[in-house]
UniProtKB/TrEMBL annotation, chains A, B, C, D:
One of its GO terms (biological process) is NADP+ biosynthetic process. It comes from the Eukaryota. Pfam families: NAD_kinase, NAD_kinase_C. Keywords: ATP-binding, Kinase, NAD, NADP, Nucleotide-binding, Transferase. GO terms for molecular function: ATP binding; NAD+ kinase activity. Belongs to the NAD kinase family. This is ATP-NAD kinase. Residues 193-214 are annotated as: Disordered.
C-alpha cells in the first residue's frame, strides 16, 4: 500500500482524447454518491441481512498485486459486471486502473491521487460495495482504504488460490455471489414489474437512482438476502510523548485509524526487550517486558495473536484481545476484554534504545514513534448511538443466503478445520 | 453440598417449645415472599446499579464448613444484621442453622429439607439477598442453591482469609458493605422522613413491605448505589444416550442446571484417553481425544480453564470458552465463542471403558453418565425477552459504590495482579 | 494387562497328552537360557549396532488383544519364523498361546503363571528377543513384562494399522526385518562356511548354542547390523506414608519398577485439585496445586507429557521431564532435568479427600496409594558401572541398517511429521 | 560491545612516561601465558572440581557499563586482589582500563585494540580466570570475548543488584569467593610448607610459575575445591547464499562463533512473516512460517527461548533447543534435541522482503545476512577427543564448595524460584 505508484492523470486523459473513449480512466468525483444499505437482524446466530434501498451503483474492485492470473480474473469479473449490470460503475485503485483499463471496453474510475494519501474520503464517499480478489492481505489492504471511515461498504471477498482465512468465496462462484449481493433486499413486487427502464435510463451520465424494477427476472425472493458478518474493528490512536497524534497518513485525515486485525508495538530490529506499560480502563494493569504487545480484534485472533499464543475468538464476540509477544515472564497469559474497554500501551522511558516498531494490520508506521509514545485503543461502536443503526465494523458478505433451505456453511468453523488445521488428528494419512 | 446433614424438624420444634423461643429454627415457608430488585445501567464499564423497590427483608447467609473462625464471624455478622436492621430475617442452611442458632438471641429460618434436594425453589422464593462467608468454593456452593433458578438474588461475598478470586469484600468491611447493599436505591426524600415506624411496625410477624422512610439517618444519597457485576452462567443439560435428562438432583427440579464456572467431561479415574465429539451451533466441530473438555463461562475462565491453558476472559465479555484438558493433539487451541452459541459434547461410542466424570462447578454428577451421553450447553440469556429487564446471571455486589468520588477499585484487574500473580515480574524480592 | 486370563496349566497338559504333540503349549522353563547381545557404538547419531554372540533362540511375540486381523498376522509371522529359522523357539503370553496354539503345527512356550504376576523373572530369563504386533499400547505392555528387569532384550515392533509413534516397522516388512535382526553381528567368515549343521544339529531338544555358520547363504555382510535406539526408562518406586514400597505387583518382585513412558500422580475421579510437593536432588523445588504431575522419560515426551504442554524431547537426550497437569498457576512451565536427577513427588497432607490415581505407563496402581505417599523416580543407568557395557533401557530395533548406502530414514523425525502432524502447515489441502 | 570506545594507545603510554608509573595501562602481550586448569568429576550431580596446577596469575575483570556504583565495586575488588594476591595481574577491557586506571595504585593490562576486533586471541592466550561484575548481559559479553576460543577460562560472576539468572555470587562475598577459586586444587602438603618465597620471588616482572607453597596459611584443605558447572555453548556458523562465512567479526578470526545462550533468525523490522527451512541431522524437518526461530543451549533455555514458550532445560542436559518465535501454526511445539545434532536454518527464497535479523546472544550480525542465508549450529564438544579432558563450555564457578558439610545451595533451583518466580503460588501476599 505504501508503495502505490503515484497516479499520473495526464497520460490517461491523453488516452481518452486519442481514440478509445471507452477505455478511459475517469475520476471518481464524477460518480454518484454512495448508497448506504441497511442491515436487519436474523435469527441466524448473529448474522445480519443486507438490504439495499436501491441497487448499488459503484463497486470498488481491489486485487493482489504482481499476480498475472489474478489480474486476468479481475478483467473477467469486471467484464461480467459491466455486461450484466450495465448501470454499475467500476472503481479501481490507480495502479490497477492503469494496468487493466486498456483491456476493458468501458471506462473505469479511480482516485486522482493515491487512495492512501489525500483522497480516501473520496473513495469512501463513492463506494457502495467493495469486492476483493486475493488473500487476507488483499482484504486487509481494502479495509485500510477505509481506515478513517466510520461506515465501511459491504465487502465481497474472493480467495484466489492463496490461503485466506478471511476470504469467503471461491472465484468460480463470482456470478452467483455478485448477483446475490446486488439483489439483496430487492422486493419481489418491484422485480416482477416489467417496465423496460434499463434501455432508456442512461440519460448520461448516470441515473440518479436505479430501481430493482428495472432488472427483469433477477428477483431472488424476499428472503434470499446476502448474509453479513459484522467484523468489529479497533479504533487506534498513536500519540507522541508530547501528545501529538502520529497515525495520520495524510494531512487531510484526522482522528483514529480503524484496524481490522490488530495494532502491535514491537522491538522491531533492536535485539533487546521492550518495556511497555499497559493500562486498562485508565488504570495501570501491568508492565510488559517482551518482544512486544498485540491488541487485537476477534477477527485478528486468528492472525498474529494466534501465533503469539492467544485464544481463537469468534468474530461475533464483542471483545479485545491483549496478547504479549514473547514476554519475559512465566505468567503473562493472554487476556480477552470487553470491546468497549479503553486500552493504552505506553513505551516506557526505561527502554534502552530508541527504536520500536508500531504496525497496524501489518503496515508499519514509519516515523515519529519512540520512547514515551502511547498507543490508545478502543473497540469501535457497532451501532449509531441515536438511531441504533449498524454503522461500524467491516460488513463481510458470508457464503450462503439467509433463509435458504440448503445446508448453510459456517465459514468460521470450516476455516478452523480446513485452513488452520484446528485439532488436526494424529495418525498417518489414509 | 451433597453431604448436607438431613434436616430434622422435630428437635428444633422441641427447642422452640421448651424455653428459648428466640433461638428457635423456623421454616422459610413462614417468610414473606422475595423482593425483586431492579438494575440500572451506569456508565461505569458495564457495571449496573442495584435498586431495591423497598428494603430487602430475607437474607440467606452461607459459610464455609468446618472452620470455627468463620462460624464465629457468621454469628457476629448475624447479630449485627439483626440489631441494626431488625426487620431483616436470616436464612441459614440446615447444618449451619443447627450449628449456630443456640448462639443467637433471635430465630433463624431454614429449609425443612436439605436445600439441594426438594426445596431449592423455596429458598429462591424467599431470598432477597445472599451473603457468603468463605472462599470461591462457598460462592460456588451458594450459587448452586440457585442452580435451577432463573433470577438469582444479589450476592454479597466476604473472603475469609482463604484465597478467593470471586470474593469481593474483606470481612472487616461487613458493616459498611451490608449498609450499602441494604440502602441501595433508597431515595433521599423517603430517607429524610422522620416517621418512627421501626418500633411500631412489626405486629403481624413481618411487615408486608418495610419502607426506607422508616430508617432514620440511613440515607446514602441517591447515587450511592451498590454496583453490580452480572456474572453470566451456563445452562447445562446432561442427557443419557436415550435422551433422558440426567442433571436433575431432585424429583422436583426440572430443566437445565445453571453453572457459574463450568461443566467438564473428563476421564476421571480411568487411565485412558476419552474421545469426545464437539458440536457448535448444531454442527460437528471436532473430535477431541483428551483427558477431557471444559465448557466455561467467562467467570470460570480463571478457574479450571485457566489451568488447562485457556485465556483469561473478563466476566463482562458475553462468551463461552471451549477448553480441552490435555488434548492428544498439537493443534487444539482454546476457543472463545459467542454466549448464545449452543455447544454439545458427546461421549463417543469409540471410548473403551465406560467410566467418565461429569462435574458442574466442581460437583460430580454421580450416576447415569456413560458412553453415548451428551452435555448440552448454552450461555444463559441475561435479559428478559419481553421486558428487557436483567434477569439472568449472578448479580455480584462489587466493592465501591456508583458515583463515589473516591478512586474506585477494579476488582477484576486487582485480582489478576494480587491473586493470580498475573505477569509477575522476574527478579529478586526487595 | 490387569485382565489377563489366569493361566490354567492342566488343560494344556491334557491337549499335549491327547494327540497333537506339536500343537502343545510348553513351559518356558524348558527353554535354554537367554543369549545376551552386545551393542557397539556407531557414528550414526547415537544409534548402536546389535551384535549377537550366537544366533538368538527364544523370541517372545506379543500382540494387541481382541483384534482378529492381528491374531492372523501373528500366526503367519510365527509360521514364518518356525519354518525359516527352525532352531527358534516361540514364547507367547498365556492368553495368546491359548488362542493360537491350535493353529500352529509346532509347540509354543508360555509362562505357567500370568506373565505379570509371579514369573516375570522367568520370561526375562529366557527371552533373547521381543517382537510386538500392535500399537504403542502393545509395546508398553511388552515393556511392562520387563518392568523389573535391568536388561531388556532387543525389541522388534510392528505397527498394525493402528497409529503408533513407538512402532518402527510395517508388518509387510516382517521377513526382511526379522532376518536383519537375527543375523545382526554374524561375521562373514562363519557365514561363508558351508558345514550343513542345520539338519544334524537338533538331537537333544535344543542345540546348546547354534552357530551362524550353520545358516547357509544368510550372511549379510559384517556391517549390515540392526540399528538400536536405546530408550531410557524411569526407575519408579512408590512408597506409602510409612515408607513401605507399594509398587510390587507380585510377592516375588522387589525393587523399582521400570517405566518406558512416565509415572503420573493425578486427582483421578476426585473433582478437586491435588497438592503435590516436588523435590529435586533431595531438595524442595515447589508445591504443585494441580490435576496432577507427570515424570516422563524422553520417550514419554510424545505421550501424556505432550498433551499437558511438555516439550518434545528426542529419546537420545538423557533427561527426565517434569510436567504438571493443569496446574493452578500461571508460571509452572515444564522442566527438563538431567537423567540422573532423583525426583520425588509427595502427596501432601494438605489434600482434602483421600483419593488419588498413580499410573505407570497407563496402568493404574490400584491399592495402597493415598495422602502422605511418595513417588520416587530416577532415570535408569544405561551402562554397567564396572564393565561399561550397555545394559539399561529398551533396545528398540530401528528401521534401516547400519552402513547401508541407501538413504536412511530417521524414524523420529518422520514420526513427528507423519504422526504428530508437527508444524502442520496452514492452508487448504491440494 | 559494538559501542566500545576505540582504544588509543598513545595517551596511556604518555601517562606512563609522565609520572604515575604504577597507574599505567600495559599491553597484555607482556603477561605470562595462560595457565590451564583441570576439572575432576565429583559425585555432586554433574558439577566438577577446579584444579589449578599452579596459582592463576592473570584475571580478566569485566563490568557493566555506565553504572558508577559498579565501577566503584570494580576498584574495590581490584585493590583487594592486588593487595592479597600480589602476584596476580589484572586485565581490563580498554574502556574500563581507561575509566579506572587512575584510581588504582598499580598497573592494569589491556588489549591494544578493542577486545572484540583484532585481538580476542590475545585475551584468550593470557586469561587464566574471568570475573564479571554485572548482570547476565555482562556475562554474555564476557563470554563473547571468547566466542572464538575453544577453551574458556573459569568464570567467577557477581550479580550487582541487577537481576541475573546466570550470576552466582553476591558482591559482598567477593573475598571468600576469590580465595576459593584462587586456592582451588592447592594441595595441603604444599600449603603447609613455610618457605617464605613470596618476598623473594618477584625478580620482576613476573615469576614464571608461582607456587601455592608460597602462600602461607591460605590452604583450604584438599577437598575444598571450587565447584564448576560447565555450560555448553553452541557452535554457530552463518553462511551467505554463496557459502561464504558471514560470522567473522574480524579479519583474523575464523571458524564458528560460540554462543552461550542462542542464535536467532527473526523478521526484525519487517512487519511480515519469515519462511525458514529447518534441517536436522542433514534432513529436512519442517518449514517454519514465523517471526523467527531460536536455536538455544540449555543455558539459554531461561532466556529468549523461555519467552517464546520453550521448556526450562537444566544446563547439564546435553541438548539443543529448537524453539519457534510466533509460528503461524497451531502445531509447532518446541523441540529438545541431542547436543550433537547438527541443525541448519535456511532463509527460504520464498521470503518477500530482504530484511532479516540474525543475533547471537543478543548481538546482531549487522551485515551480509539475507535470503538464501544459512545458520548452521552444533552443540560444542565438551571433551577433547584424544585426551578426554574437559575443554569446551563456559566453566562457571558455582556457589558452595565441593565436599563442604554445610548445606549446599543449588543455584539453578534457587534461581527458578527466586528469579523466575517459577510456579509462583496464587493468593494474596502475607
Ligand atoms: N523476548 C525476549 O525474551 C528476548 C530475550 N532476549 C535475550 O536477551 C539476551 C541478551 O541479553 P541482553 O543483551 O542483556 O538483553 P536485554 O536487555 O534484552 O535483556 C535480556 C534479559 O534476559 C536475561 N537473560 C539473559 N540470559 C539469560 C539466561 N541464560 N537465563 C535467564 N535470563 C537471562 C537478562 O537478565 C535480561 O533480563 C539474548 O541472549 C536473549 O536470550 C533478547 C531479545 C528478546
Ligand atoms: N486443575 C484445576 O485447576 C481444577 C480446578 N477445579 C476448579 O475448582 C472449582 C471448584 O472449586 P472447589 O470446590 O473449591 O474446588 P478446589 O478445592 O479444587 O479448589 C478450586 C480452586 O479454584 C479457585 N476458584 C474457583 N472458582 C474460581 C474462579 N471462578 N476464578 C478463580 N479461581 C477460582 C478456588 O479459589 C480454589 O483455589 C471448579 O469449578 C473448577 O473450576 C477443579 C478441579 C481441577
Ligand atoms: N491425555 C493424555 O494424553 C493421556 C495420555 N495417556 C498416555 O497413554 C499411555 C498408555 O497408553 P494406552 O494404554 O495405549 O492408552 P490410551 O488408549 O489412552 O492411548 C494412549 C495414546 O498415546 C499413544 N502413545 C503411547 N505412548 C506414546 C509415546 N511414547 N509417544 C507417542 N504416543 C504414545 C498411543 O499410541 C495412544 O494413541 C500412557 O503411558 C500415557 O502416556 C494416558 C492418559 C491420558
Ligand atoms: N508471526 C506472525 O504470525 C505474524 C503475523 N502477521 C500478521 O500478518 C497480517 C498482515 O498480513 P500480510 O500483510 O498479508 O502479512 P504476511 O505476508 O506476513 O502474512 C500474514 C499471514 O496471516 C494471514 N492472516 C492475515 N489476517 C488473518 C486473519 N485475520 N485470520 C487468519 N489469518 C490471517 C494471511 O493469510 C497470511 O498467511 C498482520 O495483520 C498480522 O496479523 C504479521 C507479522 C508476523
Amino acid at each position: 500500500m505504501s508503495s502505490l505508484v503515484r497516479y499520473r492523470i495526464l497520460p490517461w486523459r491523453r488516452s481518452f482524447s486519442q481514440s478509445v473513449r471507452l477505455r478511459e480512466i475517469k475520476s471518481i468525483s464524477e460518480l454518484p454518491n454512495r448508497t448506504l444499505p441497511q442491515y436487519r437482524e436474523t435469527n441466524n446466530h448473529g448474522l445480519l441481512s443486507l438490504q439495499w434501498p436501491s441497487p448499488p451503483r459503484n463497486v470498488l474492485l481491489t486485487k493482489k498485486n504482481n499476480t498475472p492470473a489474478i489480474t486476468d480474473s479481475l478483467v473477467e469479473y469486471a467484464n461480467h459486471i459491466h455486461s450484466t449490470y450495465p448501470s454499475m460503475n467500476l472503481i479501481l485503485e490507480p495502479h490497477a486502473a492503469e494496468e487493466v483499463h486498456s483491456q476493458l471496453a468501458f471506462p473505469v474510475f479511480t482516485t486522482t491521487e493515491p487512495a492512501s494519501t489525500t483522497s480516501p474520503t473520496t473513495v469512501s464517499d463513492k463506494t457502495d460495495l467493495i469486492s476483493t480478489l486475493g488473500g487476507d492481505g488483499t482484504i486487509l489492504h481494502a479495509s485500510s482504504l477505509f481506515a478513517h471511515t466510520r461506515s465501511v461498504p459491504p465487502i465481497l471477498t474472493f480467495g484466489m488460490g492463496t490461503l485466506g482465512f478471511l476470504g469467503e468465496w471461491k472465484f468460480k462462484e463470482y456470478k452467483r455471489a455478485f448477483r446475490e449481493v446486488y439483489m439483496s433486499g430487492a422486493s419481489d413486487a418491484y422485480a416482477s414489474t416489467t417496465s423496460p427502464l434499463t434501455s432508456t435510463s442512461p440519460s448520461p451520465p448516470y441515473p440518479t437512482t436505479p430501481s430493482y424494477s428495472a432488472i427483469r427476472g433477477k428477483a431472488m425472493g424476499k428472503t434470499r438476502n446476502a448474509r453479513i458478518l459484522f467484523r468489529n474493528r479497533l479504533r487506534v490512536g498513536v500519540f507522541s510523548p508530547t501528545g501529538t497524534r502520529i497515525n495520520t497518513p495524510t494531512p487531510t485525515t484526522t482522528g483514529d485509524t480503524y484496524a481490522l486485525n490488530e495494532v502491535i508495538v514491537h522491538r522491531g530490529s533492536s535485539p533487546h526487550l521492550k518495556i511497555i506499560s499497559v493500562y486498562v480502563n485508565g488504570r495501570f494493569l501491568t508492565e510488559a517486558v517482551a518482544d512486544g504487545m498485540i491488541i487485537s480484534s476477534p477477527t485478528g485472533s486468528t492472525a498474529y495473536s494466534l501465533s503469539s499464543g492467544g485464544s481463537i475468538v469468534h468474530p461475533l464476540v464483542p471483545s479485545l484481545l491483549l496478547t504479549p509477544i514473547c514476554p519475559r515472564s512465566l505468567s503473562f497469559r493472554p487476556l480477552v476484554l470487553p470491546a468497549n474497554t479503553p486500552i493504552t500501551l505506553r513505551l516506557s522511558e526505561k527502554n534502552r534504545g530508541r527504536e520500536v516498531e508500531v504496525s497496524i494490520d501489518g503496515v508499519r508506521i514509519s516515523s515519529g514513534v519512540g520512547v514515551g509514545m502511547e498507543v490508545r485503543v478502543l473497540g469501535e461502536e457497532m451501532r449509531d448511538r441515536l438511531s441504533g443503526e449498524w454503522c461500524g465494523g467491516v460488513p463481510s458478505i458470508v457464503r450462503g443466503v439467509v433463509g435458504t433451505e440448503e445446508k448453510e456453511e459456517d465459514h468460521w468453523v470450516g476455516g478452523l478445520n480446513a485452513l488452520l488445521k484446528f485439532n488436526y488428528p494424529f495418525g498417518e494419512e489414509a
